[in-house]
Amino acid sequence: MIDEKGILFILSGPSGVGKGTVRKELFKRKTELKYSISITTREQRPGEVDGIDYFFKTNEEFESLIKQNKLLEHAKFVNNYYGTPREYVEKTLAEGYDVFLEIEVQGAMQVKHNFPEGVFIFLFPPSLEELKNRIVGRGTETEDLILNRLKEARNEIEMMDAYDYVVVNDDVDKAVNKIQSIIQSEHCKRERIAAQYKKILEDEL
């Protein structure tokens, strides 16, 4: 019997590319996937549950985790820390579950440094024009912020070489189909199962 560990999948890409939409659709279809729960120092909102929505920590606790290298990545937004706990991810993988992380490009680069065995998927816009339309369509950003986001997106797209796979998000259904195929093919990779098969053969001999 092959005792297969889970795989960490990281979905990343520029702001406005539709990472959240694709992730939600994927989770509707693949219920056995585990979402990576983030740690945050922001206030717990009504209805949120510690350990399900987020792991809520104080600033001191969070900074202690940074010092102890217990985070796969972390960032600070509007005076609050957010990060991915290494212990939760490793425990969930050891239980045989795949873990899925949806994250910005800078965070993905930190994860690659701290957990290079992850599988990195870059979600690509059909074009920069389409990306601009999506950001403008949100109706939440000023003209200056839109231009900054587009410049940032161009820089992030140049970091594509750091990823294992690229999926163009021109259609959510098609993008999710491709990500499901990536998950399946990663589990069939020779190097993932060869060591386990060899151990079984040795045990039987």
From TrEMBL:
Enzyme class, broadest EC rank: transferase
Entry's Gene Ontology molecular function annotations: ATP binding; GMP kinase activity
Superkingdom, taxonomy of origin: Bacteria
Catalytic activity: GMP + ATP = GDP + ADP
GO cellular component, as recorded: cytosol
InterPro entries documented for this protein: GK/Ca_channel_bsu, Guanylate_kin-like_dom, Guanylate_kinase, Guanylate_kinase_CS, P-loop_NTPase
Keywords assigned by UniProt, alphabetized: ATP-binding, Cytoplasm, Kinase, Nucleotide-binding, Transferase
UniProt-annotated location(s): Cytoplasm
Chief localisation class: cytoplasm
Gene3D superfamilies linked to this entry: Guanylate Kinase phosphate binding domain, P-loop containing nucleotide triphosphate hydrolases
Known EC number: 2.7.4.8
Family under the similarity heading: Belongs to the guanylate kinase family.
Protein name per the record: Guanylate kinase
